[in-house]
């Protein structure tokens, strides 16, 4: 990963550090408005959970005894997982994130909380103790090789490893101009923030990984069964760079390498439940929820102002949006 060509000023660097518990973990903020996060992020639809739990029932050991949600944030995914599993282990690198999850999740006796990065999963969970591990919208901030190895050590033979990432390159069905304007504004501002040194190197690396979906994550054949399932939602089979929302600019960021194995399978589906109607305020909130620094400068861009004009002219001042989504489902080797 190339380093940004612009060195952050002392004031900028201090502001970045002041917001974070640890600069290595880009979303481990000291304080974050999780209510706003939930308001401006997609709800994981029932179709995803059905896909995950059906896969777990048919491909692996099918046990719903113990699950682990790594990079749990405020406990969004663990809330649903807790409805299916007897015991759920919940972990996050950020103390504030974990505290929010602990205050939210119930009943308390079902959940076990641990502060620590996913790369250190095997240091606190016993070997071969977990039936199902999930990572939701967090894998791109982790070391994928170390995380996969650590998680694999804790999974029972036949257990499931599930992950999901959705894109910040919003889709606007039937509105190609709006879709182009969204990309133009998001790319312009992302590159500006990089040049101004307003993003941690860990955040830039995470951004590059997230734009591959989950193709940067390898599932070694000595740890997982062949045929890892890679599902692309609201993405056409011949579509390239479906989740990318930042133009390439040498010296600012580099694309993450793909780690897809020849034996991995790919599936392309259209799922409108990964979507909603949004007004201009919601679109601002969604982009700002990335915590990259989008704000008034972004909303003043001609491209953004034209986008808002299109949105405001729609029914009730709204427009239909969808997310491109990447999902992986892998099975721990049964003879492990």
UniProtKB/TrEMBL annotation:
<dbReference type="InterPro" id="IPR029063">
    <property type="entry name" value="SAM-dependent_MTases_sf"/>
</dbReference>
<dbReference type="Pfam" id="PF08241">
    <property type="entry name" value="Methyltransf_11"/>
</dbReference>
<feature type="domain" description="Methyltransferase type 11">
    <location>
        <begin position="69"/>
        <end position="162"/>
    </location>
</feature>
<dbReference type="InterPro" id="IPR013216">
    <property type="entry name" value="Methyltransf_11"/>
</dbReference>
<comment type="similarity">
    <text>Belongs to the methyltransferase superfamily.</text>
</comment>
<keyword id="KW-0489">Methyltransferase</keyword>
<keyword id="KW-0808">Transferase</keyword>
<protein>
    <recommendedName>
        <fullName>Methyltransferase type 11 domain-containing protein</fullName>
    </recommendedName>
</protein>
<dbReference type="InterPro" id="IPR051052">
    <property type="entry name" value="Diverse_substrate_MTase"/>
</dbReference>
